Amino acid sequence: MLPVWRLCFLLLIDFCLVFAYPKRFTIEIPDGETFCAYENLFAQKKYALMYQVIHGGNLDVDLIIRDPMKRTIHETKRGSHEDIKFDSHVNGTFEFCFGNEFSSLSEKLVYFELRPDPYETLSEEAGEAPHVTVLTMVQSALESAHLYLSHAESTQIELRNRELGDRLVAEDLNQAVLYWSIAVTIAIFVTTLGQVTILKNFFADKKVFYSTRASRM
């Protein structure tokens, strides 16, 4: 059993991760449905929403972003990959809706992340106030490394999503080829069996039956 202090430490880490940025999610949207996510944002701050359709159909979804007053601040029709930047003018719950209502056959696998723009500094991620004094050389180097690593992480996730989409397409193609091969094999087997049966009937010896009944005079 874990000690109490270690359990409290793990719970604190989980709590921090829930409220930390960027927030990343991968969702499946069935055909003909809409998925909405909600997030409390602060006023007078800039945010960035990046979404990417990984798999399904023509790799497109609808997107609508609404503020707490239900006003539309951004709308995209049948987009595939986009990096959207917007300002939050009021405090409250913002709505991010991904729509797949135009599709009647295929569900969509969508990845999206929400983060401040630009990326948060180390002090902001730790929940501290921004630095009001000039950073030291060590602090400046750490902030630069943090910024570059944040960009590298986002790029790596984007490339990983592309690889996942390509792999899912390859698996679907492999499954389709397998089913088609089975159907063709069955058709060839049935056709061959039918041809053999017909040819066998052509070359079979036909038996002639003679009547032994005597003819009447």
UniProtKB/TrEMBL annotation:
Annotated membrane topology: Single-pass membrane protein; Single-pass type I membrane protein
InterPro entries documented for this protein: Emp24-like (IPR015720), GOLD_dom (IPR009038), GOLD_dom_sf (IPR036598)
Highest taxon listed in the record's lineage: Eukaryota
Signal peptide annotation: 1-20
One GO CC term on file: membrane
UniProt keyword Disulfide bond, yes or no: no
Residues spanning the membrane: 177-199
Keywords recorded for this protein, A-Z: Membrane, Signal, Transmembrane, Transmembrane helix
Residues covered by the GOLD domain: 34-116
The protein's name in its UniProt record: Cop-coated vesicle membrane protein P24 (Emp24/gp25l family)
